[in-house]
């Protein structure tokens, strides 16, 4: 049964350039929809999926197939190495520059991805945070490794209750980011949010894909099985020398690293990938549901329904 679709139309003056942002939980069909829309609008696709940026990570991040990549021009797919530090700020700068270039020949561009922070950086711009010492982050990561996430969560609750109640509190990266700003600046992380953002030259319509939870979970379980069939175990094994890199601290990789280190069986590692991917999908939906401008469609809805909606909402 269809839920809602995500639409976010920037307020202010009428602009002729349009960004169609496709969001939703992992494995729901965002790539397929983005290609159909790119073909319809004769345009190109920007990926905002931060897991798919890296050359060395293909199977475990469900990078679009060669056929899908050939069906429409894609940008920011496997464009950097896991050995290169890459931040959401760098992505915002590079993606906005790419959009400026694409809008010289296209009125509409498609953006697709399940990384809400990265999508929002393009649509709304980033909050302006102070520069924080790398030493603070290293200390927090060391504490995470030795003591686990819970002490960091309690520390954030003490320093910034507002952030504790609003960020993805079970996501170590988000907790550490909030904490390092609190500690490094002496001010709550939340105090740097919601300040005036940069103006964009485009309006945005966000389209969200969703399904009943059981369907999402079944699709995720099957997707993981397909990844294993396609060589996920071998891909992760080849990356063992780099297991401590930040890019590889992600679902699908960290579970298999533990298996290769002698923790549990392969079947258990695969079941953990499925479980953690389902949790990831739940966090994605929690993030997106905070944005009331998103227009949700069921994953089985006809693409023509989506196109009609976009045509109705797009700027003149």
Automatic annotation (TrEMBL):
Pfam families according to UniProt: IPPT
EC number(s) stated in the UniProt entry for this protein: 2.5.1.75
Recorded GO MF terms: tRNA dimethylallyltransferase activity
Stretches for region Interaction with substrate tRNA: 49-52
Keyword Transport: no
Site (Interaction with substrate tRNA): 115, 137
Listed Gene3D superfamilies: 1.10.20.140, P-loop containing nucleotide triphosphate hydrolases (3.40.50.300)
Binding site for ATP: 24-31
Cofactor entry: Mg(2+)
Cross-referenced SUPFAM superfamilies: P-loop containing nucleoside triphosphate hydrolases
Keyword set includes Nucleotide-binding: yes
Record note on quaternary structure: Monomer.
Database matches in PANTHER family: TRNA DIMETHYLALLYLTRANSFERASE (PTHR11088)
Protein name from the UniProt record: tRNA dimethylallyltransferase
Gene: miaA
